[in-house]
Design a protein that fits this description.
The chain is an all-alpha fold. Helix content is about 75%, strand content about 0%. The chain folds into two domains: about 90 residues; about 90 residues.
Length: about 210
């Protein structure tokens, strides 16, 4: 008889098995993504506080505060004793960064409120797809992208500076899509870099 191609049992657990990554590194990745999700929600809370309370006049101070926390975080070595303190610094940095995003979000809301959920869903989808691509790919297969991505980022910065004087719509659009491609590449590169650093013993999931 004819076999029904849809009459098959799909093992969804197999989709989440990464046999080429050690168990300790997989646990490390869970902590990395958990801290990333925490920062995202805290930053969203900070942006909401800014939009509701209109703390625009403190944007300079909150920017300095975020910069100070970032420097303090990078200067504090990772250890079991400093883990909670460094996580608190990261949360504080995310909250102040969210507050600084408030004016930009307020502008988006005034133009079209649907921009924010659309951007969030689009970003989350792209991040998830490229992260999974890096996880399923052969180890170190995307690490060669580092030099190209940094060169592209430098080119993007220079063209943005030039465009502030030229005011070209075409150059602005090109920078927009080039920036999107570069950031997608960084997701691939950074994910595999995190794996390799964890495999070599670096278990710092906060920074």
């Amino acid at each position: 008889g004819t076999m029904n191609v849809f009459d098959r049992n799909i093992n969804f657990d197999a989709l989440l098995k990464f046999s080429h990554i050690s168990a300790s590194t997989q646990e490390h990745l869970k902590k990395v993504y958990a801290s990333f999700a925490l920062c995202m929600f805290v930053a969203a809370a900070g942006a909401y506080v800014n939009v509701v309370t209109h703390l625009f006049q403190f944007s300079f101070l909150t920017g300095l505060g975020a910069l100070g926390l970032m420097i303090w975080l990078t200067a504090t070595p990772h250890s079991r004793e400093t883990e909670q303190k460094r996580l608190g610094m990261l949360v504080g940095f995310a909250f102040l960064t969210g507050i600084n995003l408030g004016p930009l979000l307020q502008m988006c809301i005034s133009i079209n409120p649907s921009i924010i959920p659309t951007a969030f869903l689009g970003t989350a989808t792209i991040f998830a797809c490229f992260s999974l691509s890096a996880l399923y790919a052969r180890r170190r297969s995307f690490l060669y992208l580092g030099g190209f991505l940094l060169s592209g980022l430098t080119l993007l910065l220079l063209s943005s500076v030039v465009n502030t004087f030229v005011g070209s719509t075409w150059l602005f659009t090109a920078n927009l899509y080039l920036g999107l491609m570069i950031m997608c590449g960084f997701v691939l590169f950074d994910t595999q870099l995190i794996i390799e650093k964890a495999e070599s013993g670096d278990k710092d999931y906060i920074w």
